Amino acid sequence: MYTAHFGLNAAPFSITPDPHYFYSSTGHSEALAHLIYGVNEGPGFILLTGEVGTGKTTLCRSLIEQLPHNFDVALLLNPCLSPIELLASLFDELRISYSLEQYQHKDFIDKLTSYLLTADRVGHRTVFIIDEAQNLSAEALEQIRLLTNLETGDHKLLQIILVGQPELNKLLKGNNLRQLSQRITARYHILPLSAKDTKAYINHRLAISGLVSRSLFSDSALKLIYRYSAGVPRLINILCDRALLGGYVNNKNQINAEIIRQAIEEISGKAIRIFNPKIYLFISVLVLSSFIIWLLKPTLDFSNQELSTVSSSEPIVSPILPTAIDNKPVSNLEYLLNVTSTETAFRTLFKLWGADYLELAGEKACERAAKQGLACYLKIGTWDDLRYLNRPAIIELVTSEGMQYHIVVKHLQDNIASLAVADRNFEIPINKINKLWLGQFLILWKPPMLPMPVLKVGITHKAVRWIRKQLNIKSRSTFFNYSLRRKVIAFQAEHNLKADGVIGEQTLLALQALKGEPLLR
């Protein structure tokens, strides 16, 4: 209705997940890179999570568009199905004939195995993407896990991507799904857009819809959009679409804050209060007064404490950490869990890398790590995986009551792990840790640059120079030639990696583990 009025050739803010409008913010670009890499390299599940409306489905459709022609993709949008219905939906997507009345569970599996083996022989790879996966039943999730058992001698026949809301993470942490959780080899959580990205996102969609050389939304309107939507793309689309309709009805050529405010009221059904300088001044004075009282409060509390200490004959007892004796294990793991926390673990891990966790900006730990040129690597694995990566790690321990704790493994020697808590080390036998550890760990590592590149023959990239240095090749060339590819393949084969000459996250991790501090062993 409003497209002609604003000189557009299409409605730019439809909530349909159209990959043509995909906006490649930093977070969405990294998520897409994780998906592409996982599909090409990962042997297990890929997990993509994000809040409602953050663009997960659009991301999946963008992935499908970027996959080569030899990838067969099955996209399931409604996972509220029984195991048999799930298999039938997979058959529908892959265009495999079946009879729901005559087929038993075994018939589905046998026919799917035959199909996947045939596809593999002709060079086709099959990807199964399950959207809204938080709605899957426990039985359906178990069926999905069993599908990963379809494999040849050296690789999986079916790559599965689970896409869902944050509740999916909680679901997968249940003891009944621990086998499935352990098979997840790549995870990414999409965050809402920043204020800067929100503006760029709006202008991006307008440009694709045909808007040229003018700003359709005023700066004050863009700020109000971000404040209301909190950077969630779906809310941005709904609000902008309603605002453009309001601008058309009122014959406006630019969308201002007043139109946005009216659109918010229409969408939410609530009136938006207009800024009042007098009220703002009153609130400012109130907040300032409270802050001054808060500053004085510690002094007052300290005086009261002094008086109570004088009048009391009982000593003040502080919690004491168990003492670690050199080269002798400390067996009280449960007590250590009571004196650690997730933040303590991250502060300890960052300190090992020479970084101050508290001084770095960012809501998430991995955002803070990126400020120091560090990357997070989250994996479900074993002690052998930790030894191979050779970096200190935060492990997640889960008690029988379902309580989760995070603690740093600083060193690993034979069957003894050195756990770091409050700047002190405690040696614990790994067989005691195994009773609480499901295999989930996170390490920090230093890639040549962020975001991490994928390097192969024919690419010119400054990270290639870093690769040559790690492989002790005396050349500062940034061109990835066939000579370097042969060296990379030899390195990958030596370290039990896929020897294809393509440098992705796994190969970069292996190269980085050769040198530098800190080391796990």
Structure at a glance:
Residues about 275-280 and about 290-330 have low confidence and may be disordered.
Note the beta-strand portion: 5-15%
Under the CATH scheme, which architecture of the largest domain would be assigned? 3-Layer(aba) Sandwich
Overall pLDDT level:
80
Which residues form runs of ≥5 with pLDDT under 50? 274-280, 290-331
The largest sheet, given as strand count, sense and whether it forms a barrel, is: 6 strands, antiparallel
Distance between the termini: 66 Å
Give a structural overview:
This protein is α/β, with parallel strands linked by helices and 521 residues long. 44% of the residues lie in helices and 14% in strands. The protein folds into 4 domains: 26-190, Rossmann fold (3-Layer(aba) Sandwich); 195-268, Helicase, Ruva Protein, domain 3 (Orthogonal Bundle); 333-445, Cathepsin B, Chain A, CATH 3.90.70.10; 463-503, no CATH class. The chain has helices at residues 26-41, 56-66, 83-94, 105-121, 138-147, 167-172, 178-182, 195-208, 219-229, 233-249, 257-268, 277-311, 333-338, 342-352, 365-371, 383-389, 430-433, 463-470, 482-494, 505-512, and strands spanning 45-50, 71-76, 125-130, 158-164, 184-190, 375-380, 393-398, 404-413, 416-421, 424-429, 437-445. A 6-stranded antiparallel β-sheet has the order 6-11-7-8-9-10. Strands 2-3-4-1-5 form a 5-stranded parallel β-sheet, sandwiched between helices. The longest helix has 35 residues, at 277-311. It is globular. The N and C termini lie far apart (66 Å). Residues 274-280 and 290-331 have low confidence and may be disordered.
